[in-house]
Amino acid sequence: MKKSMFFTKGRLLAVICAALPVTLAAQTQQPPAIRSLDLTAIDRASNPCDNFYQYACGNWIRNNPIPPDQSRWGRFNELADRNLATLREILDHAADASHPRSPSIQKIGDLYGSCMDDKAVEAQGISPIEPTLERIAKLQNKSELAAEVARLHDEAVPVLFRLGSGPDAKNSSEVIAQLTQGGLTLPDRDYYLKTDPRSRELRDKYVAHVTRMFELLGSDPRNAAAQAQSVLAIETALAKVSLDRVALRDPDARYHREPVSALSTLAPGFNWKTYLAGRAVSVSDLNISVPDFIRGLNGVLDSASLDDLKTYFSWHVLNKEAELLPAKFVDEDFDFNERTLLGAKEIQPRWKRCVRLVDGDLGEALGREYVEKTFGAEGKERTLRMVHEIEAEMAKDIQNVPWMSDATKKQAVEKLHAVANKIGYPEKWRDYSSVKIVRGELVADDRRTDEFNVRHMMDKIGKPLDKLEWTMTPPTVNAYYSPPMNNINFPAGILQPPFYFKGGDEAANYGAIGAVVGHELTHGFDDQGRKFDGQGDLRDWWTAGDASNFKERADCIVNEYGNFTASGDTKLNGRLTLGENAADNGGVRLAFMALLDSMGAHALPQIDGYTPQQRFFLAYAQIWCENITDQAARNRALTDPHSLGRYRVNGVLQNMPEFEQTFGCKTGDQMVSPNACRVW
Ligand SMILES: [Zn+2]
Question: Is the domain of 502 the same as that of 610?
Answer without folding.
Answer: yes
